[in-house]
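User: Show me an example of a complex going from sequences to structure tokens.

Assistant: Sure. Here are the input components:
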Amino acid sequence: MARTLAPRGPTGLAASDRVPRRSQAGARWRSAAAYLALAAGGVVVVFPFAWMLATALKTPQQIFELKFWPSAPTLDNIRQVLLATQFPRWFANSLGVAAATTASVAFFDSLVGYTLAKLRFPGRDVIFIVILSTLMIPTEMLVIPWYIMSARLGWIDTYWGILFPGIMSAFGVFLMRQFMAGVPDELLEAARIDGLSEFGLFARIALPLVRPALAALCIFTFLGNWNAFLWPLIVIQTPEMRTLPVGIALFSGEAGSSWHLIMAASTLAVLPVLAVFALLQRQIIEGVVLTGLRS
Amino acid sequence: MPRPKSKRSSTTSGPSRRTSSAADSGAAGAGRPDRDAGVAVSGPAARTRRGLSLRARRTLSAYTFLAVPLGFFLAIRIAPAAGALVISLHRWNIVGTDQPFVGLANFREVLSDRQFWQAAANTLRYAAAGIPAQLALGFAAALLLRRAVRFRGFFRTVYFVPFVTPVVAAAWVWQWMYSPNFGPLAMIAGRLGLPAPLRTPALALYAITALVVWEYLGFQVVIFLAGLEAIPQVYYEAAAVDGARGWDLFRHITVPLLNATLVFSVVYATIVYLQLFTQVLNMTFGDPGGPLGNTATIVLYVYTLGFQRFHMGQAAAATVVLFAALLGVALLQLTVLTRRVEY
């Protein structure tokens, strides 16, 4: 009985486990069960990666043996994908397109967000509503006009053609406006009096203060563009211009049942992303929370 | 809603940013009292060297900053959306040169196309299966993670990995896992007496849904965790003092206070599921949408119609219908889901 009451004291409340525990032993069991369930879920979540890697390291014959891990792992498949396809080119294309798009979104969205939040001028609210309303338009509705437009302007199968639809985002404008609103007016006014130009106020005063939001926007934009598939699939025509997702999809489609090669290509696409994620995981996850909850 | 990370304010920017910037502005103001006072007296009508009023100058710089972005949103978002409407009223074949006006004929053709309705029904089926699964699993995992103090960060990271994994690569890995005879998921299905999921019309859609749930689970967990952490601890303590127990606490504190998070999750997931394309195309690459079209989605329908059969007019009509549906869903969700938020 004494044991049951003990956790209800101030120490029980201070513990991060917020539900008052009925008994120490019961709590221990439930905690163990929680870890067990989480671990089981973790195995399910991670399994596809293990299966991908295992297949990528097998010879074509070993694929059809019922053995999970190859007895003699081989890097031949990886080598073959790197040498026989334009994989490095696709990787560079994706990197370039995603980086350029992210830089553009970071600059324009924060500038527009700042202008809409901190400058007072006629037409401001109308402009904000117009930009926000474009969020309602689904990409699918736009790809057909974009394609016709690109065909007329000669943008098909060019880098500009791949990235032009994404160089600004209404979501980013909305996000940055929210955060720019938190920049104190007195600070801007003081810097204005010191003779800083209007652009200087944005770039040197406001922007450094919203750096976490900006980082989150950059992460979201980069991820989105790194993964972009529908529009690149439509606008890209030659193998050299493919981005990584388009390259992987078309390569895998042509590879038939050469699963050792398809998985090698997937591994090559996944590993760099996992490496970056391992380095930046806290910033990435918190950035997602930051953008998610503010919207 | 309080910021979820306020506990670690020393590393995040929130509160510390506020104090430092307030200090800066105070210092700047104090350092130059003469200039500060000078402008405050002259006010907005003051003339600058160029002869423009401060207000006009500010308006000018605002529109200078906005010129390029406004041009972008008009030319790359609004005009193409209107363009889709125009195209949907014409017979628009990319190879032909003339595009005759055909009125609503494209809409009639799309709306009488059995494949369109099948794709629409499939899209709803994906959403109806995937969204509840994703929310329930994500919520369960978040609640478990609240209990698991020691490895919370580790598990959160592990669950989040699929969300940052390139979708196309993941779809091919899952297709291989479903491969009859050799794929582990097909083997498990076999043990359960089921046929190979991806090859079976009745199961294929749910096999693809599993991939989407796997992909978004970690995102959902992270969002729910942030929502749970934002609930003030004192509510639980007060309720506990009043004698409330586990389930009561959950029902009367956790669920209502998590409403905003739930609304966000449902709206976000709805947008994702109604626009499914990449996962479906890559998991059924040889025959997009499956031989009987039983995994095809609206977007896949639009893609095949517009970019493989080149019936741009009809495809545009289908996107206009999709747009109307998304708008309807958004309005419905706003009215239904936000009703209970005010607590």
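The lines above are the inputs; the final block is the predicted structure for all two components together. The CA atoms of residues 274 and 326 of chain B lie 8 Å apart.
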